[in-house]
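Re: [help] complex structure
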Amino acid sequence: MSVVISVEKISKKFDLHGTQSWKTLRDTLTGFFQRSSKREEKVLWALRDVSFNVYEGEILGIVGHNGAGKSTLLKILSRIIKPTSGVARIRGRIGTLLEVGTGFHQELSGRENIFLNGAILGMKRKEIEKKLDEIIAFAEMENFIDEPVKFYSSGMFMRLAFSVAAHLDAEILLLDEVLAVGDVNFQHKCLDKMKEIMNQGRTILFVSHNMSAVTRLCHRAILLEKGRIVAEGDTREVVKTYLGSDWRTRFDREWENYVQAPQSEVVRLKRMRIINKDRQTSGSIAINEPVGVEITYEVLEDGHILIPNFHFFTQDWYQIFAIQDVAGKWRVTPRQKGTYVTTAWLNGNLFNEGRFFVEVAISSHSPNRVHFRTNEPVSFEIFEIPNNFYTRGDYMGHIPGVLRPLAQWETECCQFRMKSSS
Amino acid sequence: MSLLIEIKPQARGILPHLKEIWLYRELVYFFVWRDVKVRYRQTLLGVGWVLIQPALITFIFTIILSRYAQSFIQNIPYWLFAFSGFVVWTFVATAINNAANCFVNHKEMVTRVYFPRLMMPFAAVIVNLIDLKINLIVLLIAVGFTIGGFSWKILLLPFFVFLIFLITLSLGILFSAFNVRYRDVKHGLPFVLQMMMFATPVFYSVEFLPEKWRFIWKLNPLVGAFEGLRSSVFDSEFDLIGILISVFMAFFLFSLALYVFSIMEENFADII
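Output below.
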């Protein structure tokens, strides 16, 4: 396999001005202009000596916390910003999808925007004309395509934007979190489209917080932390390292800033946490005790039947199972506006020892719709208790497997043979 | 797999830029097309706006100046003379203004996607050529009716339009790049454009000036271009030296603009 992207010791330095933090750096710079006289030497290395290769036809996942340098890396590779030092070589036509919908003009129709956006992404006019019907069909927009974009819902807008980008004929694609937008049904369609692109042998760099997408799509992954590569290799191993790092193993997540919370116009998640049998927030639960997953959420619109569903994953991100709220009343009763708390209790003696992750979604079933799904999981650790007679008995060694359910054992003696009959 | 892109901290110089611009030439078309489509949408007067601006300002200047100025220009009515200037000046001023703000008004294009940045001021200036074309046609009709015809010199009109286009483009490119870094441009530009209008024979001719000032005046590349354009429309004597200075200055300005831009654009996304 030939190397398509080679990155050699790329570093990127940002000069921070005054006491401003990284997040407001851009605001500061656009707000007014500060010259050297006022500058305090404060420097942030967004990337530090990052080197890696990407081979032809490979899908490389890039994971890491916010601010680890993922986006900076993609921006450098897509030539939006320049590195401070180092060199990167890219063989082939490169397409970038850092944020879909760039350059869309509100006054223009969907069809006109396809051409404009396509051209900005580097497509030729003939190419766009050839793919126009396909793009419109994929976005499921046949009826609205000649309306100005300003009348589109945000979902429609994202669908169209993704569709244009997905039909880009680049040999190399840089993708950043595109799947985290739009409703979940369309996200699945996008994932399928990406699989299709992958099968065409294109090379893809994929940045995401969505561990399911990363493990499902990527052949290999790198983990960035504070601008350096700290893990590289098999996707599941890298994801495991990522989720294992302290920062990630959170058993209580609360979204105070509601803009960032998982939400749709119907419902918004406020908090998710793991609780023990006393309803205390807890990250470690004894193997024989029940595990509770509790979510607090706000219903923003009257009249929807909402079904919370919880998804359980292992540390290397295999899904173990999914459960949904099928208990009585709320399965059939449309919700009123207000704040709700839902808890799912899983009996003790279900999980094996180890760490588990939970993601939360809220759906409606007729019509089928997923309102949101969390991208950042909560996690808990199941620990063995001493003298565990439930599932361990007298055995002292390692018990394999993900689960360790308590089974009902029956042993009957059907025929008792007499000792020495001859 | 022949295309190799190298990403390095150093500036790439002008030549690779020009090559790339050629690769992306369709994008200019799409930017222009977008602006044309959007420009007069949801306006009451529509394309009428194109003509209103130079027409009104010509009207005012005619009232103020025609009695004084008419003695310098014997065979042309002053309003027609001034109109020819304002038609072209409207293009210069609007185009420079649009180009100067093209990055600042479309930050997301700079921070989220890559394409040769030069495309944006380029497109911003070209869009205004369409308005200029409409106005020039109106001007030529007016001249045809009032004076009754043209000489062979009218064939040189496209040359002078190109010259003015080149100067405008160069200034637009320079202001657009400086505006990314120094938002002072936004405040200073209206004033600069006003000064430029007075330093260019828009509503007067160089003949109005005291003899000793004329040569200094002609160092402004727009002077030779404007005077030349008038000579071709009104069949008057070409000022060859003025035109030569203008051509020379225009190409110098254009090279300078490309050079400065190619250095400044390197960190647009970091500082915008």
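Residues 151 and 223 of chain A are 40 Å apart (CA to CA).
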